[in-house]
């Protein structure tokens, strides 16, 4: 390993660090601000998996508008830029066709979404799929009246999952 490490015999320091940074399993990788010791990124393993070349370094939190930047889809195939969301309240919906609780929540969410839109509110939902195939994504998305991150944009879907620390579906 080309980085520094605690000496093996200093187990008490290891335990203090594990407790301070709430490490519960291995492997774990967090990124810290070296000056303050504050956590900059808690899910370093996902970051390295998604950005092995370090193109997005430094790996700190990014604002939503930066993470969502790019085209969004309507279920009729139309595309619009994420910048069109400015001034709106936005829900980000992490869901999947294969997930029964997701499908139940989607039905309820569709009704709420329609009522809010009919009331003239500036509100939008963005579907971030965890489907296992593009066909499943398309079938499930056809039931939704809102926007979606394109299924083929796996990097943006992954960045959104990291931004909000999504561990399960639905969220």
Automatic annotation (TrEMBL):
GO terms for molecular function: thioredoxin-disulfide reductase (NADPH) activity. It holds the Pfam family Thioredoxin_8. Residues 61-171 form the Thioredoxin domain. PROSITE patterns: THIOREDOXIN_2. GO terms for biological process: negative regulation of protein ubiquitination; negative regulation of Wnt signaling pathway. One of its GO terms (cellular component) is nucleus. It comes from the Eukaryota. Coiled coil: none annotated. This is Nucleoredoxin. It comes from Leptonychotes weddellii (Weddell seal). The gene is LOC102732447.
